[in-house]
Amino acid sequence: xQRPSTRRQFLTGTGVAALAITAGCVSSGSSSEPAAETGxxxxxxxxxxxxxxxxxxxxxxxxxxLDDANGYDGxxxxxxxxxRPTVWVGQEMDGGLAFDPPVIEIPPMxxxxxxxxxxxxxxxxVALDGTFDSGRTNAQAGTMxxxxxxxxxxxxxxxxxxxxxxxxxxxIVKEPPSSGNDTVDEWLAxxxxxxxxxxxxxxxxxxxxxxxVEGNGGKFAFGPPALKISTETTVRWExxxxxxxxxxxxxxDGPLNSELVAEEGNTYEHTFAETGTxxxxxxxxxxxxxxxxxxxx
Length: 297
Ligand SMILES: [Cu+2]
Known about the structure:
The protein has 297 residues and is an alpha/beta fold. The chain contains 5 helices and 18 strands. Bound molecules: copper (II) ion.
């Protein structure tokens, strides 16, 4: 991992006024002192050791680095093409200040907006590799910062005043999964459990999709998210009973329109008579990525 300490020192050097305000919270962030500060254990020792002038030894994986990121459950929030992701700056999560969502996955050519909540005092957005930098810290609600991500890559960033308190995040820029069906790919780019696979069920008369499987930051996914069937096949959706109430509603004026139900064991069926690509979502969780597709051949 590249974390150029010179760059960081340069940054803190330029924000003199801001630093003066926040110096109380910064503890050992930019000093060469190892982690004796708050007794947060051995992980902090490696963390605080890095900003010193000592050369990096083993690069830390993104997951390791995010281990103490407030509010991160291990699953990046995924956004599709044409989306306009917003990250809240200064949300209370895990008993500390966080970026919300802390980790997002976006396609190249996406603009990310950071929006200050006004909670928790002075914040800024600083990429560890220097790619982006919102400059001086700011405590004002409504402060915004934008960055346009053109290229794939992993960008780690912090709010400098709260870095040691776990206010860390990452932007993962990667090409969305591709199944070869553009309509499906675009619709499911936001679904965290879609990996580009359209499950082939053309061999059956009844195919099953489970509503409320793990994904999209909870039990907010369809499993499988995409499937391929033949005409006259019945698709049956089965509710797991997890993740709250779900429904099956076509995008546009498609044929799917179930009740909004939370109970385990509920089912909804539709027999597809005509070929085509049918897109649907669970209305309450569509924005999280609870989407599905049925390709009828
Ligand atoms: Cu749902």
